[in-house]
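Researcher: Next entry in the queue.
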Amino acid sequence: MNRQRFLLWDIPTRVFHWTLVLCVAAAVVSGQLGGNLIDWHGRIGLAVVGLLAFRLVWGVAGTTYARFRQFFPTPSRLRAYLKGEWQGEGHNPLGALAVFGLLGLLTVQVATGLFSNDDIAFSGPLADLVGRELSNRLTGLHHLAGDALIGLVALHVAAIFFYAHARGRNLLKPMLTGWQQGEGEPARGGGVLALLVALIVAALAVYGASGAWLPEPPPPPPAAETPSW
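Model: Structure for this entry, 229 residues:
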C-alpha cells in the first residue's frame, strides 16, 4: 500500500541547502590549506553572501515550511517540544535553533571575512574600508567564528544521525526529494515573483560585498631614477 506524502521542501530551498553545504565544505578546506587556494576561499565567501541574502528573502516570501515564522523557536514551542507535545512538520524547535545558529554564524563569518587579511598577500574585498588594526581584529574573529561553525555543523550532522537511528526519521530524504511521507499540508506560496526578488537581492548582495563599486586605488608613485654616474 502506498503511503500518502506531501511537498515539504521546495526546489529553491533544497538548492540553497545543498549549495550552502558544498560552499561551507569548500571554504573550510581552502581556508585550512591556504596558499593559492586563499583566493578561492574569498570567492566562495562571496557565494555564501549571495546564498544568505537569498535565504533571508525566501524566509519571508518563500513557501510554507521555508518561512522563518513557520519554525521560529519561540519559548512556547520549545517547551512543547521538550514535553513531547509539539506537533508539526519541517524544522522542529530544537532543529530551528540550529538553523538560526548556523545562519547567524555564517553571517558573522562572511561579514568578518570581507574585512580580513592573511598578513601575506590576501585582503578581503572591503578591507580597504577599515584600518589595519581593525582588519586584524576582524581576522581573529573570523577564525574564531570558523571554529564555532565547524563545531555547530558537526552537531547538526550528529543530530541527523540521531533522528535516523534513534527516532527512525530520515531528515535527509525530504531535503533531497522535497517530499515527506505521511499526512500533512503541502508547502504553498513562493512563486516566480518571490524567487526573482530573492535572486536579485542575492546578486546585489554579492556585488556590494565584492567591492567592485569601490574606486580604483591610485597608481604607485614612479620609481626614483638612478643616477648614471
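Model: The chain is about 60% helix and 5% strand.
Researcher: Noted, moving on.
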